[in-house]
Amino acid sequence: MEIVLIRHGATAGNIEKRYIGTTDEPLCDTGMVQIQEYMRAGCYPKVQALYVSPLKRCSQTAAFIYPDMKQIIVQDFRECDFGKFEGKNYKELTGDEYYQKWIDSNGTIPFPQGEDIADFRTRCVHAWNRVVNECMESGVGTAACIVHGGTIMAVLSEIYGGGYYDYHCGNGDGYICNVTQKGHISTIKKITEK
């Protein structure tokens, strides 16, 4: 089975390098143009099922790429809750004592008033496993998941291996994952690689 993990198109907050987790921002014009460019380049494969984070930026991206497909909403695919960092960028957080502690920890301590990264990773992997099982039970051979950068990093680092930040990808990019009968990921490939 093949599952494509696609990061949503860019939002205004993404362009400004802000921590956008729970904020329900729409795609910006730049984000829509980038998705259209990837579509023209043939980056997004045809799929039989479409799973989407509940946030607007993901449902809009899904509607662009797969306009005639039913979107199956997966609540636990939503982005991490960045707590006090939400909506801010690194410039605005410079000098913040807790932000410096978070940076020094390599992003492993919980976000202040936000989500613990370990809990976030567990949540995303549970959602992934439910999608894989549903696809296998219904005989779906190809599926797309339109999600967030953090969701992709969580799923791939936990299931495929490697570090969390090894799987960072730009807006509209993502990975094609070959999934075994047991739900493991055997190989991955960036969707923008030719």
Could you please describe the fold and organization of this structure?
The chain has helices spanning 12-15, 29-40, 56-65, 90-93, 97-104, 117-138, 149-159, and strands at residues 2-7, 49-52, 71-73, 142-147, 174-179, 185-190. 38% of the residues are buried. The chain is globular. Helix 6 (117-138) packs across helix 7 (149-159). A six-stranded mixed sheet has the order 3-2-4-1-5-6, with helices on both faces. The model has no long low-confidence stretch (mean pLDDT 95). It has 194 residues and is an alpha/beta fold. The chain is 37% helix and 16% strand.
Summarize the structure.
The chain has helices at residues 12-15, 29-40, 56-65, 90-93, 97-104, 117-138, 149-159, and strands at 2-7, 49-52, 71-73, 142-147, 174-179, 185-190.
Chain-wise SSE layout:
Elements: E1 2-7, H1 12-15, H2 29-40, E2 49-52, H3 56-65, E3 71-73, H4 90-93, H5 97-104, H6 117-138, E4 142-147, H7 149-159, E5 174-179, E6 185-190
Which class best fits the helix and strand makeup? alpha/beta
User: Which term fits the overall shape?
Assistant: globular
Number of strands: 6
What Rg is obtained from the alpha carbons, in whole angstroms? 16 Å
The residue ranges in which pLDDT falls below 50 over 5 or more consecutive positions are: none
Helix content: 25-40%
Biggest sheet character: 6 strands, mixed
How many helical elements?
Answer: 7
- Strand order within the widest beta sheet: 3-2-4-1-5-6
Percentage beta strand: 15-25%
Average of pLDDT: 95
Pattern of helices and strands: EHHEHEHHHEHEE
Distance N to C terminus:
21 Å
